[in-house]
Specification:
Blueprint lengths: L1 H17 L14 E3 L3 E7 L2 E5 L13 E5 L1 H18 L10 E7 L4 H13 L17 E3 L4 H11 L6 E3 L16 E3 L4 H14 L4 E7 L2 H17 L2 E8 L4 H13 L4 E5 L2 H13 L6 E4 L15 H4 L3 E5 L7 H13 L13 H5 L1 H4 L13 H19 L16 H8 L3 E3 L5 E3 L9 E9 L5 E10 L8 E3 L17 E5 L8 E5 L4 E2 L9 E2 L4 E3 L6 E3 L10 H26 L4 H5 L2 H17 L9 H34 L13 H23 L1 H18 L21 H13 L17 E2 L4 H11 L6 E3 L16 E3 L4 H14 L4 E7 L2 H16 L3 E8 L5 H13 L4 E5 L2 H13 L6 E4 L12 H7 L3 E5 L7 H6 L10 H11 L37 H19 L4 E2 L2 E2 L10 H10 L2 E3 L5 E3 L9 E10 L2 E11 L8 E3 L26 E5 L8 E5 L4 E3 L9 E3 L24 H14 L5
Parallel strand pairs: 2-5, 2-6, 6-7, 7-8, 9-10, 9-11, 11-12, 12-13, 25-26, 26-27, 28-29, 28-30, 30-31, 31-32
Antiparallel strand pairs: 1-5, 3-4, 13-16, 14-15, 16-17, 17-18, 19-20, 21-22, 23-24, 32-37, 33-34, 35-36, 37-38, 38-39, 40-41, 42-43
Length: 1224
């Protein structure tokens, strides 16, 4: 029995020893294309893009995966690989006696198939491997795959065996890790470069608001992450970031919906070819067009995306593509050579059993005669390079020479190929150099391509630029913008129309709407219409502004006469009634009627009748506002009186009821208070209506403060607060404001010596009000910074030591005007000024500067807006009768309006006007009737500036920001002619305010930021305070970051503000430098503007500058632009009292006249003058008669019989010394 058991064990051991140790479980994976050779290169491509997974019953062996949907581009990759191998096999210089074989697998676009292909490439086709599992790999290198995710699977599978993988199209930056993928190479650049290039492309076109979509794969996720980081650095904002996988149709539909609803019209699609195809189908179905797609190399040049409907979605797309390369011979190979070597079968014998390969690949054979796509192939060149890289590596390892060939005895291992690949450096026949960097990648070179439609209607991928990472920084990225075609949805809008977006459509889809009356657009595809100036109207085609016909009611017209008659009649009747009431004031009837209210009612009626007279005559900005304001206040006063009387009558009937005590609430005092209250409301509304610009100054101050509070570099941990008071344009109210600023609202203190709660005051807008405020606050060392007070008297630091301003003093403007007059040789001028602080102080400074410049003033007149017409007419007569042809007008706008109106009436033309900054750029003066007088005017104006973000801030103002602010409510009511009170009875406005009205829909001085001059001064004043506090609190930069702990103290900061404010010196973000001189004034900088008339429209052209910060000889400069002079003359006018004296004459001052007026008197006998003009006479006393020049007198001498006259000899010698000393 024991012998039997032993025998059985021996037989079992022998049987086991004969069985193979390693065998393949299941059926082997067969290559779709293969060929034997001395060395073998593997290939893995997605020749089919769809895979059908079998149903898994877990009872039977799963069937093979079924692939479908031929991907022609991937098939071309396989053909390129075979073409390169066949070309090398036929070569005499590269691997001369070594043949290369290939094994190409189809992974069907699936990572599952990629794993099967990887195992097949490593193991080969053997079912068993004998007693050891550590045999040689079936291939020496693998080419593929096309997608990053599949390539990662392939590299991680083959990596432990050190089999080199060279991808032609896997661009994921994650594959650059040599630690994780040491045997991976690629002949395409990493997405690190493409993603950054995409961000630069988006930034180049100013697209700061984009959407992004990427494949939910290693390729898409990594590439998009790099793009988002680069976009953030470039200042590009991303509205949404969506991702989906090709196997997620529901998620894809969600992505399409996000795109449809988004506001971003530029989409960056970091998608693989398959995902892009799926997205394109859904966008076409939903008819989502007009989007600007920015694509990546994976799909931007994919022919399979070109369908009859795809261009409506992708037309105009931009993206980076791999450069095209023309591989000679490849086009013929894909039609003939490939089929003869890879598919040696024909249509006749395809049914034979030996032709099963042809039967399984009928879809491939259908492409046999098609090669139209070959010229557009891009990745094929990368595969070509990859094959040659492997061949050069093998050539080196096998020690091949042209004489003896290669040493086939040498056994090449895959790890040796990896090392050899790291050192390859060669040039292929297309001229491209092939080498790998430290990460195993190639140099980043891309073409920028644009989807365009050719002349025959076909879609073309037109190169419009390039990106080459090997070039210097300034030359890496080049675009030819003019060659780009953009997405088009609607035709261009002609001039006279504006674009209006179609609801629910992209920005490229719009309607062309005719501009409204009074508005024009003079360019194609205008986004909006421009409002014509006040005195212009739009043409019929809405493409130009034409001058309005000026029509207004005059006193000489019939309607004017009738209006004056009835107005005066109403005044007369009212006065008669008032006299009757006055005579009978003690009668019961008058007393019962509340005589006080009755007289007030009659007074207001008189004013109402008189207000109608203000509507006669040429309107101006001030007269329009004053006439409405005056009538509004007087009318409200009248209605308030009627209302008071009516309430008393109504309450009188209620008072007859028993125990009624209601009349005590409607006595005379209450009636007076009700009239006062209602009238006061109207006064406040009128003040706000007139001073919208002042309210804009307030908002500019708040804007600057909030901007500073949000800054990380200025007062980082300190917040600025503010208190704004309304001085109502009144000196009395200004004093109350000053007291409020000093005392604050705290009444609980026991001491009267507490410090003021404010550190600095900004304001006021007028010099007189500013002086009042300074005298109240100066004793407490509180700085006052004015943005508009220009009186030179405020520069006196002895009287106003705490005063600063961000507007130049009139002292500088006056000196600049004097230099201007002297520059053009005008020594004889007339002057006219406003009879107020502005005009009087400014003209005094000008007169002093003019005297120093040698300029004489013929006359100096004053004018006030309250002057009678007779006085204004007298001033104009003086100007007209004067001999000076240059008039210096130091006038405020109100006085200028009055003067120019009278000048037009008297036809005062031909004068050269020189104006001050108050009126020289006043647009309302530039009317048709004024152009004949003011054309050619010269004057200095404060330089304009822009404050980024201010307009948007102004338009965001609304009562909802501070529901407790009455000023905001009153401002809103005045702007929109409405009322917040639900009880609209007896209100100035009969419409309810909602608070949601849009400021963008109104146009007034508040919303107009085109002429930011004084508002910019407010902005500078706030920043001056902030920089003062920043320096005082020692908020300094530390280590490149702001030190967040400023040295805040409560004991000494108020005393130090004045000290640090004097030394403030900084630059605004607009580039404007801000500092104060020893008088607290800024640097005086003005633009010299010239009035011109072009096609009936006035223009203010800058022709020079004045900068007081420069040396004296460089302060006033002209910029070389030709000046239009008075009466449109091209020749400079002359304005002198007396013309220059010619040589031979001398100037003789006329008694009682200025030094500029003189007579020209011939030089006396024996005297000369050899200069023209000038006050210093350059003349010489001659000893003999003769004028110019001194002529030598005839020589006289005595004969030999006479002695020479000694006097003549001496005089002759003296004359030679003077006239011709060189002859001596």
């Amino acid at each position: 029995m024991l012998a039997v058991v032993i025998l059985w064990l021996v037989q079992a051991i022998e049987a086991q020893s004969e069985a193979p140790l390693c065998k393949l479980l299941g059926s082997p994976e067969s290559p779709i294309l293969s060929k034997e050779g001395d060395v073998t290169i593997g290939g893995a491509f997605s020749i089919h893009s769809k895979i059908t997974q079998p149903l898994l019953s877990f009872r039977d062996t799963p069937t093979r995966l079924q692939c479908s949907s031929l991907n022609l581009r991937e098939f071309r990759f396989a053909q390129t690989m075979i073409f390169a191998i066949e070309e090398i096999n036929s070569s005499d210089y590269l691997l001369p006696n070594v043949s290369i074989g290939y094994r190409i697998y189809d992974n069907c676009g699936s990572t599952l198939s990629s794993m099967r292909a990887a195992m097949a490439l490593m193991n080969g086709a053997e079912l068993t491997l004998g007693r050891t599992c550590s045999g040689q790999s079936a291939v020496h290198a693998i080419i593929g795959e096309s997608e990053s995710s599949s390539t990662i699977v392939l590299s991680r599978t083959t990596g432990p065996f050190k089999i080199p993988v060279i991808s032609h199209s896997a661009t994921c930056e994650c594959l650059s890790s040599r630690k994780e993928y040491p045997s991976f190479f690629r002949t395409i650049a990493s997405d690190l470069y493409q993603s950054r290039a995409l961000a630069q492309l988006v930034k180049h076109f100013g697209w700061s608001w984009v959407g992004t979509v990427n494949s939910d794969s290693d390729y898409g996720n990594n590439g998009m992450a790099i793009f988002l980081a680069a976009a953030r650095e470039e200042g590009v904002c991303v509205e949404y970031t969506e991702r989906f996988h090709r196997t997620e149709p529901e998620k894809l539909r969600k992505v399409v919906e996000v795109i449809r609803r988004s506001t971003a019209r530029v989409i960056v699609g970091f998608l693989a070819h398959v995902e892009m195809n799926n997205l394109l189908e859904q966008l076409s179905v939903r008819n989502i067009t007009g989007l600007q797609f920015i694509g990546v190399e994976a799909w931007i040049t994919a022919d399979s995306l070109v369908t009859p409907t795809s261009f409506s979605v992708l037309g105009g797309s931009l993206g980076f593509a791999v450069q095209k390369a023309n591989i000679s011979g490849f086009s013929d190979f894909v039609i003939k050579g490939f089929w003869e070597s890879a598919f040696p079968c024909s249509q006749q014998n395809r049914e034979n059993s030996m032709d099963t390969q042809c039967k399984e690949n009928l879809d491939l054979i259908e492409t046999k005669h098609y090669n139209d796509d070959v010229p557009e192939l891009r990745y094929s060149a990368n595969i070509y390079k990859a094959i040659y890289a492997v061949a050069h590596s093998l050539h080196h390892l096998l020690k091949c020479t042209n004489v003896s060939g290669c040493d086939k005895v040498i056994k090449v291992h895959p790890w040796q190929v990896v090392e050899a690949l790291q050192m390859v450096n060669f040039t292929i026949k297309t001229g491209d150099q092939v080498w790998f960097d430290s990460t195993g990648a190639a140099v980043a070179r891309y073409e920028v391509v644009n989807w365009q439609r050719g002349a025959n209607g076909s879609v073309q991928f037109k190169p419009v630029g390039y990106y080459d990472a090997s070039l210097p920084p300034g030359e890496k990225f080049v675009l030819r913008t003019n060659d780009i075609m953009w997405p088009v949805c609607s035709e261009s809008c002609p001039p006279g129309t504006r674009k209006v977006l179609q609801k629910g459509k992209p920005v490229c889809c719009y309607d062309c709407v005719l501009c409204a009356e009074g508005e024009i657009s003079n360019m194609t595809d205008s986004n909006g219409c421009t409002k014509c100036p006040e005195d212009f109207w739009s043409s019929e085609n809405r493409d130009e502004c034409i001058l309005k016909t000026v029509e207004f009611l005059t006193f000489t017209e019939v309607m004017g006469i009738v209006l004056v008659f009835f107005s005066l009649l109403g005044v007369l009747l009212t006065i008669v009634v008032a006299n009757l009431f006055l005579i009978n004031k003690d009668t019961p009837l008058v007393k019962a009627n509340n005589s006080e209210l009755s007289f007030l009612l009659l007074f207001s009626l008189t004013l109402c009748f008189l207000c109608s007279l203000t509507f006669i005559g040429r309107p101006s900005d001030w007269s329009c506002m004053l006439r409405h304001t005056a009538f509004g206040i007087t009318f409200v006063l009248c209605i308030s009186c009627v209302l008071g009387k009516t309430i008393v009558v109504l309450m009188a009937f209620r008072a007859t009821l028993p125990s009624s005590n209601v009349m005590k609430w409607f006595g005379p005092t209450q009636q007076r208070l009700s009239v006062f209250a209602f009238t006061l409301i109207q006064v406040v509304i009128c003040i706000l209506w007139i001073n919208f610009r002042e309210f804009r100054f307030v908002q500019t101050m708040i804007f600057a403060i909030e901007e500073i509070n949000n800054s990380t570099s200025l007062l980082p941990n300190i917040s600025l607060g503010y208190k704004v008071f309304d001085s109502c344009g009144s000196i009395m109210a200004t004093m109350r404001v000053a007291m409020a600023l000093l005392n604050g609202n705290d009444t609980s203190g026991q001491s009267c010596s507490d410090k003021s709660p404010i550190h600095t005051v900004i304001g006021a807008s007028e010099s007189s009000s500013t002086i009042i405020m300074l005298r109240a606050l100066g004793a407490f060392q509180i700085p006052v910074i004015s943005h508009f007070a220009t009186c030179a008297c405020l520069s006196d630091k002895n009287e106003y030591p705490t005063f600063f301003r961000t507007i130049p003093s009139d002292y500088y403007q006056s000196r600049a005007l004097a230099k201007l007059v002297k520059h053009f040789g005008w020594t004889w001028v007339g002057t006219v000024r406003s009879d107020n602080d502005y005009g009087n102080n400014g003209m005094v400074a000008f007169a002093n500067a003019a005297r120093l410049e040698g300029v004489c003033i013929e006359y100096s007149e004053t004018i006030s807006r309250l002057d009678t017409r007779e006085k204004v007419a007298r001033v104009v007569s003086v100007i007209r009768d004067g001999t000076a042809r240059v008039l210096v007008a130091f006038l405020a706008q109100g006085e200028m309006d009055i003067l120019i109106e009278e000048a037009v009436r008297q036809k005062l033309t031909g004068l050269q006007w020189v104006g001050s900054e108050s009126w020289i750029t006043a647009g309302h003066l530039a009317t048709e009737r004024n152009i004949a007088i003011l054309t050619g005017s010269l004057g200095f104006t404060i330089r304009k500036s822009t404050i980024s973000g201010l307009k948007e801030f102004l338009l965001r103002v609304s009562p909802s920001q501070n529901s407790e602010s009455n000023i905001l409510k009153e401002f809103w009511e005045a702007i929109f002619d409405c009322n917040f009170d639900s009880d609209l009875e007896n209100k100035a406005h009969d419409r309810q305010c909602s608070g949601s009205e849009k400021l963008a829909n109104v146009s007034n001085p508040y919303t107009d930021v085109s002429e930011l001059r004084i508002s910019n001064n407010v902005y500078k004043a706030v920043y001056a305070v902030a920089h003062t506090m920043h320096n005082m609190l020692k908020c300094k930069m530390a280590g490149g970051n702001v030190n967040q702990s400023c040295a805040w103290t409560n004991s000494s900061e108020r005393e130090q503000v004045l000290k640090y404010l004097r030394g403030v010196n900084f630059t605004l973000k607009s580039g404007e430098r801000v500092y104060f001189d020893q008088n607290g004034d800024p640097t005086a900088m003005y633009d010299l503007v010239n009035w011109r008339n072009r096609a009936g429209q006035p223009m203010f052209v800058t022709v020079g500058n004045y900068d007081a910060s420069l040396p004296k000889d460089k302060q006033f400069t002209m910029n070389g632009i030709n000046i239009t002079w008075a009466a449109k003359s091209l020749e400079r006018p002359q304005s002198v009292c007396t013309a220059s004296c010619l040589p031979g004459f001398r100037q003789a001052t006329i008694k009682g006249k200025p030094v500029c007026c003189f007579s020209c008197i011939p030089c006396a006998a024996g005297e000369i003058s050899n200069a023209t003009g000038g006050r210093i006479l350059q003349w010489l006393r001659c000893l003999y008669s003769g004028f110019e020049p001194c002529m030598p007198a005839a020589y006289l001498w005595a004969s030999l019989s006479k002695m020479p006259n000694p006097k003549l000899l001496v005089n002759d010698l003296y004359l030679k010394l003077i006239v011709s000393p060189s002859k001596l």
